[in-house]
C-alpha cells in the first residue's frame, strides 16, 4: 500500500513517441506479428538477472512518481523493474484522448536499496505494471492489480491479499514435451476519467505459435471485476489450448496433513475447483497435492462458469499469522457469448514447498487454433470471496482417513445449507435438510460401502460419509451428491483417490 502522493511537475517517466491509438490497432499488430517468424524476446543483462529474491524486493518504485498521482482520477499507475525471474522487458504506453505515448525508463523512478546496478536512462528495464486504487480506506491507495512475468496477472478484492493468479493464455500445459509460455510484450494503459471506477489496460501477447490482443477493463471493489476481450492469431496449429488459465498453490489440507509435519492445519491459496455446468449442475472438486502429476478433464460444453476458490476463510482454518491464507481471493470465470464445446482441465503438480504454484485450471476448447482462422472470445473475472450463488447445498469441508480396522478409505463430506435470500448473509438452518435426503455415491474403481448421511446439528449443515475398499486399485474417481426424491439438491462433490 502507499499513501496518495502529490503530483510531480516534471515526471521522470515523461512520455515520448506519440501516435494515434485504438484497440483495433492492437488487433492489427497481433495479426501482423503472427505473419512473421517468432523472435525470442531480449533478456536483461546479468546484473539484473543475477538478483536474488530479497535483492529484487529492494527495488521499489518511488510513490512520488506514480502516474496520475494528484489528478483525482481514482487510479494511479506504477512501473515494475526488471530483475530476478522477471528478466524480460516490456514496453509501456499511456493512452489519452486517442493518442498513445511510450513511457521512458529512468532510474530515478526507483529506489534500489543496497543494490549497486548500472543506471541507464532510456534503457528497456520495465517488467510490468501495477495499478492502485483506494478499495479499503478512502484516500489510501491499495494494490489492486499487477501484470508481470509471462502473461501473468493478479488482483484482489476488498480486505484481501494476493494469492491465485491468472494468465493470458496456456499452451500444452502438462504435456510431456513441455509447456509453451506466451508473454505480454507491451501494455497500453488508458488514462481514466476524473473519479473513474474503471481502468482499461491493453496488452500484446506473443509466443512461438500464437499472438494475441487483449483488453482488460478493471473495476475494483468488494470484489474486483475484470472484463477480458481477446483475439488470437496462430503461427502454427495448436491443439492443446487453455483459455482463461488460472494458477494457484495447494500444499496441504486435511487430506494431506499426515504427509506434512507442520504446525498449521492447512497451507494453500485455493482449495476447490468449482464448475457451473450448462444444465444447472454445480461441480466441486477439492484440490490435492498428489505424489505424481495428475491431469483431470471435466466435460464443460457451454460452461456457465468455473474458478479456483478459497472456501476456507477463517484464521482457524490455517493458523498462519503472516501468510493470511484466509484472506486469499477466489477467482471466478464467466464466459461471454457461449464458448461452445470444450472441457475444464485441472493440472495438479506434486510440490513440497508453499512457494511453488502447483495448480493450473483452464477451459480447453474442442476447436483447434489454426493459422488464418483467428479466435475471438471474451469473459469476465471476479476476484473476491467464494461464490455462494448456486442455490444448492454447498460443499463445506472434506476429510478422510482409514477406517478403524484400517482396511478401507473413509471419506467425510460436510455440506452447508444455501444462503437464505430473506436474511442477507445468513444461511438456511438444519431444517433445510429433510429426513428424506439420501447421499448418492459412485466410484469408478473399488467397492463403496457404509454410505451414511444425517443432519449436522452442531453446524446446521449435513454430513455424508462412505468407505471405499481400494484393494487392487491404484486410482478411483469418486462422486457424491445429496438427493431428495431423486432430485439433486447439493453441489456434486468429485474427488480423485490415488494409491
TrEMBL record:
Keywords: Periplasm. It holds the Pfam family MdoG. The keyword Secreted does not apply. One of its GO terms (molecular function) is catalytic activity. GO terms for cellular component: outer membrane-bounded periplasmic space. Residues 21-497 form the Glucan biosynthesis periplasmic MdoG C-terminal domain. InterPro entries: Gal_mutarotase_sf_dom, GH-type_carb-bd, Glucan_biosyn_MdoG/MdoD, Glucan_biosyn_MdoG_C, Ig-like_fold, Ig_E-set. It is found in: Periplasm. Pathway: Glycan metabolism; osmoregulated periplasmic glucan (OPG) biosynthesis. One of its GO terms (biological process) is beta-glucan biosynthetic process. It comes from the Bacteria. Signal peptide: none annotated. Gene3D superfamilies: 2.70.98.10, Immunoglobulins. The keyword Coiled coil does not apply. Belongs to the OpgD/OpgG family. This is Glucans biosynthesis protein G. It comes from Methyloceanibacter caenitepidi.
Amino acid at each position: 500500500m502507499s499513501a496518495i502522493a502529490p503530483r510531480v511537475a516534471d515526471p521522470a517517466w515523461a512520455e515520448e513517441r506519440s501516435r494515434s491509438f485504438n484497440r483495433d490497432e492492437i488487433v492489427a499488430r497481433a495479426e501482423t506479428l503472427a505473419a512473421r517468424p517468432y523472435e525470442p524476446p531480449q533478456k536483461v543483462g546479468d546484473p539484473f538477472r543475477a538478483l536474488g529474491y530479497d535483492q529484487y524486493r529492494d527495488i521499489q518504485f518511488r510513490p512520488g512518481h506514480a502516474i496520475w498521482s494528484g489528478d483525482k482520477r481514482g487510479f494511479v499507475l506504477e512501473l515494475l523493474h526488471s530483475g530476478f525471474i522477471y528478466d524480460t522487458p516490456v514496453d509501456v504506453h499511456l493512452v489519452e484522448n486517442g493518442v498513445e505515448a511510450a513511457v521512458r525508463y529512468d532510474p530515478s523512478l526507483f529506489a534500489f536499496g543496497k543494490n549497486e546496478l548500472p543506471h541507464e536512462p532510456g534503457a528497456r528495464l520495465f517488467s510490468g505494471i501495477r495499478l492502485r486504487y483506494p478499495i479499503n480506506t478512502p484516500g489510501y491507495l491499495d494494490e489492486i492489480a499487477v501484470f508481470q512475468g509471462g502473461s501473468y496477472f493478479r488482483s484482489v478484492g476488498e480486505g484481501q491479499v494476493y494469492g491465485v493468479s491468472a494468465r493470458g493464455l496456456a499452451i500444452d500445459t502438462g504435456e510431456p514435451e513441455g509447456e509453451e509460455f506466451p508473454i505480454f510484450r507491451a501494455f497500453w494503459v488508458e488514462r481514466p476519467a476524473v473519479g473513474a471506477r474503471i481502468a482499461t489496460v491493453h496488452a500484446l501477447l506473443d509466443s512461438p505459435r500464437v499472438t494475441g490482443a487483449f483488453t482488460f477493463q478493471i473495476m475494483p471493489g468488494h470484489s474486483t471485476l475484470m472484463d477480458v476481450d481477446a483475439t488470437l492469431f496462430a503461427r502454427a496449429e495448436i491443439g492443446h489450448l487453455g483459455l482463461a488459465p488460472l494458477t494457484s498453490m495447494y500444499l496441504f489440507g486435511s487430506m494431506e496433513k499426515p504427509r506434512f509435519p507442520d504446525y498449521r492445519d492447512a497451507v494453500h491459496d485455493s482449495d476447490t475447483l468449482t464448475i457451473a455446468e450448462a444444465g444447472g449442475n454445480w461441480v466441486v472438486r477439492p484440490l490435492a497435492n498428489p505424489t505424481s502429476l495428475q491431469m483431470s478433464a471435466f466435460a464443460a460444453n457451454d460452461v456457465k462458469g468455473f474458478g479456483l476458490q478459497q472456501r476456507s476463510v477463517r484464521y482457524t482454518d490455517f493458523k498462519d499469522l503472516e501468510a493470511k491464507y484466509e484472506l486469499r481471493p477466489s477467482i471466478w470465470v464467466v464466459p461471454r457469448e457461449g464458448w461452445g464445446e470444450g472441457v475444464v482441465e485441472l493440472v495438479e503438480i506434486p510440490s513440497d514447498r508453499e512457494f511453488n504454484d502447483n495448480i493450473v485450471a483452464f477451459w480447453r476448447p474442442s476447436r483447434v487454433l489454426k493459422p488464418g482462422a483467428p479466435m475471438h472470445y471474451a469473459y469476465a473475472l471476479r476476484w473476491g470471496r467464494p461464490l455462494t450463488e448456486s442455490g444448492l447445498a454447498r460443499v463445506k469441508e472434506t476429510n478422510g482417513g482409514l477406517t478403524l480396522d484400517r482396511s478401507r478409505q473413509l471419506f467425510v463430506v460436510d455440506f452447508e445449507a444455501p444462503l437464505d435470500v430473506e436474511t442477507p448473509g445468513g444461511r438456511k438452518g438444519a431444517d433445510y435438510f429433510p429426513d428424506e435426503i439420501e447421499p448418492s455415491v459412485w466410484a469408478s474403481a473399488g467397492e463403496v460401502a457404509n454410505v451414511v448421511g444425517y443432519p449436522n446439528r452442531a453446524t446446521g449443515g449435513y454430513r455424508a460419509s462412505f468407505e471405499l475398499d481400494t484393494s487392487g486399485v491404484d486410482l478411483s474417481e469418486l462422486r457424491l451428491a445429496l438427493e431428495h426424491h431423486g432430485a439433486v439438491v447439493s453441489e456434486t462433490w468429485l474427488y480423485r483417490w490415488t494409491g
